[in-house]
């Protein structure tokens, strides 16, 4: 009787590994292929949005090119040409080209 129960204990552990092992493995693979890269992209985007300043040339998500004239916590005002100024949400910024520094001029 003792010998029979000793043989059954490892079989129970093996059945748990066979049942939950693939689920754990799939979660680990999905984390490294999907979740982690998305978190890195989100972090770099947030850093880019927080580092914009007046005078930077930007491109919006819609493809509009302009220069930042005014800046608040949530909105930006872009100068598209000499007369046109447009207001956008800060989250509408897609790419930033820093303003040329004094040394570059």
Topology overview:
Layout: H1 2-50, E1 57-60, E2 65-71, E3 75-79, E4 85-89, E5 93-97
Antiparallel strand pairs: 1-2, 1-5, 2-3, 3-4
Could you explain the architecture of this structure?
One of its GO terms (cellular component) is plasma membrane. This is Preprotein translocase subunit YajC. Keywords: Cell membrane, Membrane, Protein transport, Translocation, Transmembrane, Transmembrane helix, Transport. It is found in: Cell membrane. By secondary structure, the chain is α+β, with helices and mostly antiparallel strands. It has two domains: 1-51; 53-97, SH3 type barrels (Roll). Helix content is 47%, strand content 25%. It is built from one helix and five strands, in the order αβββββ. The chain has one helix spanning 2-50, and strands spanning 57-60, 65-71, 75-79, 85-89, 93-97. It has a five-stranded antiparallel beta sheet with strand order 4-3-2-1-5, with no helix packed on it. Strand 2 and strand 3 form a beta hairpin. The chain starts with a helix and ends in an 8-residue tail after the last strand. The model has no long low-confidence stretch (mean pLDDT 85).
In short:
The chain is of the alpha+beta class and 105 residues long.
DSSP E strands, number: 5
Q: Structural class from helices and strands?
A: alpha+beta
Largest sheet descriptor? 5 strands, antiparallel
SSE string, helices as H and strands as E: HEEEEE
Number of helices: 1
Shape annotation: rod-shaped
Radius of gyration: 27 Å
Instruction: Please indicate the count of domains.
Output: 2
Strand order of the largest sheet: 4-3-2-1-5
Helical content band: 40-55%
């Amino acid at each position: 009787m003792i010998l029979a129960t000793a043989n059954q204990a490892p079989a129970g552990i093996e059945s748990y590994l066979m049942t939950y092992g693939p689920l754990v493995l799939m979660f680990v693979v999905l984390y490294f292929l999907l979740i982690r890269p998305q978190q890195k992209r989100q972090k770099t985007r947030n850093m880019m949005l927080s580092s914009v300043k007046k005078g930077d040339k930007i491109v919006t998500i819609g493809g509009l090119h302009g220069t930042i004239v005014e800046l608040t916590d949530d909105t930006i005002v872009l100068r598209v040409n000499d007369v046109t100024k447009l207001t956008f949400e800060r989250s509408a910024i897609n790419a930033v080209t820093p303003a040329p520094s004094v040394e570059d001029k």
